[in-house]
Batch of 3 targets.
Target 1
Amino acid sequence: MSKQEEYHYTLSLENFDVSLLPQDARTLGTPAFREAAGRFLQGHFEGFGGRATIAVSSKQIEVHWTPSSEKASPLAGAVSMLEKGEYAAAVMTLRFLLSVQPDDVEVLYNLGMALSDTGQLDEAVSWLRRAVELAPTFVEARIALGMAFQRQGKNAEALDAFKEAVEQRPDYVSAQRNYGACLLKMGHTQEAVEHLRKATELDSNDQRAWFGLAQACEEAEDWKGADEAYKRVIALDEFNDIAETARQARSRLAQGSFRQSGTAGVRMDAVMYCLGALQRFGQMTPDEVKKIAYEIAMLGRTGLAVNDPAPKYRLKSMEGEFSGLHLACFMYVGFKQLMPDADMGFDLAKEYVAAKVMHEAKGKK
Amino acid sequence: MELRETTRLIISQVEKVTGIPVHVAEERSLKTLAVVRMAREGAPAHVIAFNPTANMAPDYHISCECGFMLRLYACPLEARRKFVATPQGRREVETMLKGPNSVVVKMRLPASMQNQLRDQLFDGLMLQLRSMAIGMRVDRWLRRDYPDLNTLQEASARKQMQDNSQALGPEVQQMAPEKIYRANVAMNGAFASFWSGILGDGRFVAPYKATKHWSLSARLLEIESQIPDNPTEDFRLVDEWARECGLTGWYAWEPYE
């Protein structure tokens, strides 16, 4: 590769795509624009070595690039594109690299992964197979091959690939996690639990491994183990999609356990809690009800212990100590009043109807 | 000027495939680095002219022109096409140049200069459309099969990207109608992205990613990656790029005789 040389260009402000900047920095020529545009352009030069000096004036942006002594490789460039989600450009680069280095396993692996991620599965499998043939101990490529097989719906082939990966690197969390997930998919529940547990032991912060373990425990009817694992999923990052799914699963588990301990399908303790909520909310404004319902909803994002009778929760918006079920009933009644069609994730419909009948009858007296 | 062995080898491939000799000639008045004039209507030889004042060995550019010829001749005779700019395209450019707030109106350019500017913009854009996408494929082929040209090829690409980036400044933007400017910058962006990937050097594509035209560049790259690298598909590749850039009808494909 030839040596990097200094590079200079001028970008007209009219050319600049302001939608790339934060909302409050889109007015051309303002200090906020200047700062955000400079930062944006700097960001594009990161990862390529060298240093960019950026000057934003009222009409144009001037960029001067000074090279560093480090050389960037084409493969690194392609990987950087993949990390930014620029699949088409990365695939083009990788194909080119492959044409000049047909046995480069890193190129084969990255191209296979990129094609697999973009749904071009037959070709992905073909390149990943080649990578594994050339480098049988390249575990990442073996896992990528397994994932491509899975995406093709070829679970048996996927299982073989993951199994090989686990045998080669039993201490590799990705191998254990993928093998466990595949075992679970194929109905080998106990084995799946073992490998997914191993994955969580190898990396206790791997949210996907905990989620897999939770699902496997659920499948094995180990409700307590499943709930503990789902709790861990939520604790690791409570704002992503996987945490949301875990919350729904916890709610489903709690519901199942809750119903098992009721008689004739109705839990009288919940009926009484709902009745209490109806009475209390009847003396409050909608805003006050809303405040309580939302506080409980936020508190319940990691799950309320509805099967534990101990009063262990406190609220800012309402005095007293409450059990998980008590709060769930307050929340249910509150949302029924505010948004009757909302799905609360925990079904207290029967208890609510019974409480409402009692409440109305009491009102008539 | 003494050509490299590789260049001579590529020229001999052209002679073999086309059955017509290739004559290489210096031409100091050339506006581009090299140009090919293919033998037609009984001409005795293909002529590849190159500009010796370009301060760079001509081997890469000559080989590149040969690459275009070899791709054309790889198509069956009945499928070979010649790219011809149409009067319709030229008229459209003229109309744009005479529109309100155009540079022609603002600067009160005389008719002769108006025509000069029109031809410069239109011919430049048509050359870019005809050669840039197919050129990427020629470049891949040269890089794969003739690595001893790599250094010249990279130097040429870097120079071209440096030159292309001048179009991003306010002066050029004020001069060119929006449609032409957009197509030009988008194709330059696609080219920069292509080479940034090969060179592992993201500097050249960075400015394009900041422009309003980057999404079009990305679309052009996507098209290039989706259409098989087969010479018979080259016409479709150009047509698809033209469609995305709004340049359909500005050129036509005529049978190559």
Target 2
Amino acid sequence: MKIRNMVILFTVIMMAGYLAAITTINASQINRVDVTEINQVAKTIEQDWQAGDTKKSGANRGLPYQIALVTDENYQALLYDGIKNRQTIIDLTGTAADGQEKLLGKIIILTDGSEEATMKRNLTVMITLTFGLVLIMVYLLFGLVHTSILRPFGVLKEFARKIADGDLEFRLPMDRGNYFGAFTESFDLMREELRKARQGEYQANISKKELVAELSHDIKTPVATIKAICELLEIKLATVQAEDLPGSTAATTITESIAKIAVIDAKADIIDALISNLFHATLEELEMLKVNVSEQPSTVIIQMFKEMDNFGKIRFKNDLAECLVFCDPLRLGQVIDNIISNSYKYADTDIDIWFGLDKTDKNLTIKIKDYGAGVDPDECPLVCEKFFRGSGESIQNTPGSGLGLYLARQFMVAMGGSIRCYNEGGFTVELGIKVV
Amino acid sequence: MSNTILKAEMLSKTYSNGSIMQHVLKNLNIEIKAGDFTVIMGSSGSGKSTLLYALSGMDKPTLGTIDFKGEAISNYSNDQLAVFRRKHCGFVFQQIYLNDTMTVLDNIMISGLLVSRDKKAIANRAKELLQQVGLSDASYHKYPSQLSGGEAQRVAIVRALINAPEIVFADEPTGALNSTNAVNVLDVMTEVNASGQSIIMVTHDIKTARRANRILYLKDGVIIDELNLGAYRKDDPDRHKILREFLESMGW
């Protein structure tokens, strides 16, 4: 139950009790004068009158009284006053000469009627004060509970929520004077420990990635050496082969060796490509990959395709609109390299290129399309995800890291451009580049 | 009035200094209609003159196309461009470039003779034009050194007009003149425009710009805004106010 509701409930109960008390007090008649006492007094006065003591006022047994005789002129007025003042009035009878009982007048016992009212009022004030004080005390108690127990709980709740959100920098405000001080302190210690652990984990992760980046960079050097040696061997063996007699065992061995060296060379190429993507992906994770966007003539794009056209399969289907575009030539080159390499690897068909220029949207589009099997429609939205590789058998049998299109997307986005992949009678990639 | 004579699309001009490329004009799209008096304004280094030279075929754009009456002059060779300039363009510069060893008439006629062989017709046209710009018979055989700056510039305007070019390109024609001569030259330019010739002019001067019916404001190689004054009469006092407000909004 909320503290506010509790206060309200308590107030209602107190008010009800208070009202009940007041009603009871007001309803009760307090007859201060004892009836038997009054009868006693009346008898005494009657006896005195019989005895001839006819004083008209006095006190008997501590009760002052006054006598109004029937014969008095102001008999009615006296009686009326007595009634008005809520005084006790008793008949005064005496024995007449003929022996008959006869009403002589009235004894008016002079009790104070207003005294009772005063007393009731005083009582009411006292009760009001008492109830009020109790109510205030209870309010104070509730207040104390609220500030010293409930509020710290609220702060603790907020603290827990922040911790859950991963905000470990939020310090828990501590009040050691409070009952909760020690309790909250232990919570804050917990946060501190958690923060240290998180930081340690982050550092470890970074160093792991740095290691991968360094290693992948270092591996490139021996791979390059392997490639150089392969080429050298191929040339050397080819010369030897030309000099050697055809058909001899040596010649066959040399031919076989040349074929094997070609395989080594091809595999080294694959390792090189994989390592290079891994290197860039790791750099990207470390946020160390720089994309330097500048204003470049769109003609550089043609050059990028031409550099990739090792097999004469790239066909430009229309002219590129000459304009200035925002790009990083190095990164855009990598993007095109990755897309074209994929096409060579998985489709191995002709590659058609269309250019389009939207002057109002200031966007240059490059549509790169091959005529292979395309990708599984279900997997199409995932091709730009990190480490994602298609599930098809031919894809699984081709070496690859699943980083090419991921990097392509990262680079395009960093250049303020876009990339879209879809099937359209073959796998199609549409690049959007911002025009100046 | 509404037929386009000169149209530039995605016009860019890049100067390279070693590995550093400087893009002076960036993807500009401009359309010049016959009879337009276009003024190009902008702070120093914004690419005004580069734009004028690219549009007039004096310089080749790095990227983009320029069409003159439907012909892509951006694909022309240097020789083709020279012929194009001779036939269709007139030029007026801040430095007047009159040949000091020739008389006024000869200075004008040599331009005409590059296009036509009819010496007599050219001489007649030259005289007619000189009359038109307010130069008397007495000046025909003077040498440029004997002319005032304003007179020399008017001679240069006549030289620019001798082949009845479709477009006159002017690069700060009043830049080196005193105010009286400047007004004179501008009056001539306005008259020339009124007779149907298109003018494209680069200027720094608000009084000069006021004569135009179209102001292009260039900043860092991009047209950031354009003002059309065509709706106001040449002597409308609002013209100056609107132009001033426009230039103020450009941070002039």
Target 3
Amino acid sequence: MSAHSTSVSAKAALPAAVNRALRGVVRLFREKPLGAIGAVIVVVFLFCGIFADWLAPYGINQISPVNRLKPPSERFWFGTDHLGRDMFSRILYGARLSVIIGLAGATLATFISITLGVVSGYFGGKVDMIVQRLVDAWMSFPELVILIAVVSVVGPGMYQIIVILGMTFGIGGSRIIRGAVVSVRETMYIHSTQSMGASTWRVLWRHILPNIMPPVLVLFSTRVGSVILVESGLSFLGLGVPPPAPSWGGMLSGTGRTYMYLAPWLAFAPGLCLTFVVYGINVFGDALRDLLDPRMRGSR
Amino acid sequence: MRAYLVRRLLALIPTLFFASLIVFSTVRLLPGDVIDQMIAQNDIGSKASREALEAALGLDKPMMTQYFSWIGAILLHGDFGNSLWQQSPVLDELLARMPVTFELGAMALVVALVVAIPIGIISAMKQDGWADYLGRSFSILMLSVPGFWMGTIVMVFPAIWWGISPEVRYISFREDPLGNLAQLAIPAVILGTALSAITMRMTRTMMLEVLRQDYIRTARAKGQTERGVILRHALRNALIPVVTLIGLQAPILIGGAVIMEQIFVIPGMGLLLLEAVSRRDYPVITGVFLLVGVVVMLINLIVDLSYGLLDPKVRYR
């Protein structure tokens, strides 16, 4: 760990935030070994996604008709598909796609959750009533059904998927943020800030927001996994990111599926990667929740 | 009880109103003119003129009028409009497809409970033992395996190894009950195991909580058998939050059913939705969308009402 060695040499210069983060990592490994495994999977996944260009031995859509449907070998670790594209390279680029969609979708979702949750929870009253009924109505639709209906109008594509997934998960998650805001709102320090004449904006920004960070972080981390899983589900149905983009879900569907009977390895790599990554994010999210926010334990 | 039911039904009205608004606006107000897309991507465009299409969808009227005539027709006449593709009433199609999805969903739920509750109980009884670890690991793993991947594997590998592939033609329950159940069994098991993960964790957590209570010690002290303690005293009290969870999982179940219906070619509401999407048949899409929302709301209502059966302490006021 290079970060550790620098922390020894330049300890005083390190900002407090970095120091805290490092201590958090140590705590994670010591107290939650399973969560640490999850964290390692997440880091490897991020690494593969970010450096896909350097890591991938072949191009993303590099077609090679001579090498079509080759089983896994030294040259093609995960075999090749019906166009002779290297599956290993496509998996790496697929990781990048998942990283982008997962992070962007979860960021948007968290932003929407915070906005709705804070407005609903802090102001209460009629606003709360109306927002909560809307959330109720929204949550009675299966995510996938909303997504399919919306995609049927706006058409498939990466940006659409990010926005729709962000909105869907954002509205659903606002409940959790609202709960946190409601419990913070009634604390002594908020009342005293209010009585000192702080503006609403200041109360929200400087006092409410920092105090709801633990559930926000937990929500964000679990959302990344959900977004990735649902995106792959949509792509599997042909409604996500359209081919030839290397979406893990998309690789399991359409033409890929017809060739699986001849080349069973096509079925393995994308599904296994997806399972691993979502497993990693789930376990990491669980550990994060236990460490940051004991109140939420067992809520999922 | 009756007053409670009436109040709950009344409280459903605003939620239903918002739900209908969501359905209406999602399918009609989003960027990209529906008509343009229909003409561009469908051969409907070549058959009918733009004006005729707009009139058929009622898009030539103001938004408010459109909404009220749409919801009015549904509420007063059960009229969801006609399919743009087949010109048949959407309602007929919905009624034909709904039981299939319900059957699949119910079977999956049974699988989920049959798997989850015993494992949850054993896991709690042998806390931190090997059975507990095994059960919990299985549960986290099942949470992470995408259903569509399991479905694909189940379709592909038996075909390669043993040359078995599932029947693609749907067997209805009326013509062959056993064949129908056998056909739905595999997707129901895949869907059910995925669902069992969360239920199992909840059962375990609640059982652990309940087993620490004084009345459990009392039951043991009076000489009740372990089986009696677990089943009569602990499980019944632990089950209430588990039942709530089943209500919360209804949307997940229906979402999963869409994918299973696609993989195993089961003509339920999910497949209807996907077919409608590929044909841009908006009245059908809106119909399925709205119906699914209403069904989920009703399931949650039924779940709330069932508390009284499980827990006599619950009084509806």
